[in-house]
Amino acid sequence: MSWPEAPELPWPRILRQRWLDLTFVHWAFAPDDVAHFFPPGTRPDTFEGRTYVGLIPFRMVGTGLPYGPAVPYVGSFLETNIRLYSVDDTGRRGVVFLSLDANRLAVVKTARTVFGLPYRWARMCHERHGNHHTYTSTVRSSGAAAVVGVEMGERLPAGPLEDFLTARWGLHVHHAGRTWYLPNRHPPWILNAASITALEADDLLGSVGLVPPEREPDHVAFSAGVPAEFARWTA
Fold first, then answer.
1. pLDDT tens-digit series, residues 208-228
2. CB 107 within 8 Å of CB 77
3. What's the rounded Cα separation, in Å, for the pair 83 and 98?
4. Are 16 and 66 within 8 A, CB to CB?
């Protein structure tokens, strides 16, 4: 199976950035257990009757307008997000973010105000030693913390579950009394298998209202990253 190509973005483009050194940690959930998190007009998207909760730490680099230089300093930062998988009444598949933790206060304030996204200011660190990556995050307001350590493995072939979890060309967010869809585009992912070496996530999952699963993740993968761009949001 080959990775699907992203649909063409509508004009105008509003933002570009690169997502680097991503670890994807996923647990399967019953759709009814998370349905209350979804904004009006959307519902849990499912794969073989289950939906998924993703914990994704990574580096955001080179954020800026569609043309010209990236924004200095605040355009590059660390992020850890918790996300769900959505589909709306028109059939558009996307993600719903329960939290996006970042270590740049200006990013947090801007994203919350402009897009209504649930960013939180956090103390964060990413370390790499060979193929081993460690991410730590502590939300400054609550102290909710997480540690993720992974060892990158061999190339992971594209499969139906990987398609479901990563071929997401937009996000849904409820903001200013409406549910919006913010489309994005990026090249096909190159994923590697990954093995967990450290995982302390219950605190962070609980901070957004999830009941932490009492089991190991159902799917773990790593990617060196992709460039991405966003178009103007639509209802």
1. 999 999 999 999 999 999 999
2. yes
3. 6
4. yes
For residue 85, list its beta bridge partners.
Answer: 95
Task: Name the token pair of 143.
Answer: 């102290």
Q: What angle do CA 57, 46, 112 make, to 5 degrees?
A: 45
Pick left, alpha or beta for residue 174 (phi over 0 → left; psi -120 to 50 → alpha; otherwise beta).
beta
0.90 surpassed by pTM: yes
Mean pLDDT of 6-16: 80
Longest dimension (CA), the chain: 47
* Percent of the chain as helix, strand, coil, to the nearest 5: 15, 55, 35
- Strand pairing partners for 159? none
Per residue in 65-100, pLDDT tens?
A: 877 777 777 889 999 999 999 999 999 999 999 999
Among 145, 133, 140, which Cα is nearest to 197's?
133
Q: What whole-number distance in Å separates Cα of residue 159 and Cα of residue 157?
A: 6
Contact call for residues 121 and 102 (beta carbons, < 8 A):
yes
- Percentage with pLDDT > 70 across the chain: 98
Q: What SS3 class is residue 37? A: helix
